[in-house]
Amino acid sequence: MPSNITADEGDSVTLPCRANAPDKPQITWMLKGSSGLVTDIVPTGNVQVDQSGDLMYTSVKSDNIGEHICKACNAAGCESVEVFLNVLCE
Description:
The chain is an all-beta fold and 90 residues long. It contains no helices and 8 strands. The chain has strands at 3-8, 13-15, 26-32, 38-40, 47-49, 55-57, 66-74, 77-88. The strands form 2 sheets. A 5-stranded mixed sheet has the order 1-8-7-3-4, with no helix packed on it. Strands 2-6-5 form a 3-stranded antiparallel sheet, with no helix packed on it.
């Protein structure tokens, strides 16, 4: 069950994804939209992934609403965590 985060449109928001492992896991963020399609999130403009793996939106928009999936993979395998982001539009 994903955790939920609600933010106002235009706010900054951070979605947590902490991967603790001896070797640095590769972090991939994906967005599952209302249509059910899953797309990779590419860090550009107002979207960044910090060194710990957290996804940061500097100004969230209605396009960012949906189930965000953080996948962390290393030699031992992959783990994923889900966070649902709801954006309150004016």
